[in-house]
Design brief:
It contains no helices and 11 strands. By secondary structure, the protein is mainly β.
């Protein structure tokens, strides 16, 4: 089972940007679709973005569409989430997950990286 480790989180002011990285080991992401989720305090897990095998198709939640971009580098075995124009409501623990086609189901996930956006 592929192991995933996220990095790149931190604290930013509203309007700022962050780039999250999801690094895989123990397996290759090329055989997985990849999803970013987030979970805020007292809030259920929320779908953020999904990318298919090879990166030909992407999908985003309405909350982040136009501000966030998911991408992947199968050679580097990494997935990225570029987050622009961040808002306080984007504050959450962000984690990546490896799936087999589904936007919401996955076989493995990382522990997450915290993103905090101050107003």
């Amino acid at each position: 089972q592929v192991r995933l480790v996220e990095s790149g989180g931190g604290s930013v002011q509203a309007g700022g940007s962050l780039r999250l990285t999801c690094a895989a080991s123990g397996g290759t992401i090329s055989s997985h679709t990849m999803t970013w989720f987030r979970q805020g305090v007292g809030i259920m897990r929320q779908f953020v973005a999904w990318i298919d095998y090879g990166g030909r198709r992407t999908s985003y939640s309405d909350h982040v569409k136009g501000r966030f971009t998911i991408s992947r580098d199968d050679q580097a075995n990494q997935v990225y989430l570029q987050m622009n124009n961040l808002r306080p409501e984007d504050t959450a623990l962000y984690y990546c997950a490896a799936g087999s086609g589904s936007l919401y189901e996955y076989q493995s996930r990382g522990q997450g990286t915290q993103v905090t956006v101050a107003s």
